[in-house]
Design goal:
With 74 residues, this protein is mostly loops. Helix content is 0%, strand content 11%.
Length: 74
């Protein structure tokens, strides 16, 4: 019913043969995150490292048509 409750209804005159149709549509989601990377043992130089972020599907494969974002330490 859209509120987390299972509701079953019968239609038609013959209720001895029932078909159950279960449908669900998940809403979208969005995530924002941040992080810090620490270099130990030597001095960090500008543009010493690059990082790539890629949007993926639910099987962790890169989404087609979505370019990866690349950034370097500043």
């Amino acid at each position: 019913d859209g509120n987390g409750n299972l509701v079953a209804k019968t239609t038609g005159a013959d209720t001895t043969k029932l078909d159950f149709k279960n449908t669900y549509k998940a809403g979208g989601t969005e995530v924002s995150f941040g992080g810090t990377k620490t270099l130990e043992g030597k001095n960090l130089e500008k543009d010493q490292f690059t990082f790539e972020l890629q949007e993926t599907d639910d099987k962790w494969a890169a989404k087609k048509g979505v370019e990866a974002k690349t950034a370097s330490n500043g």
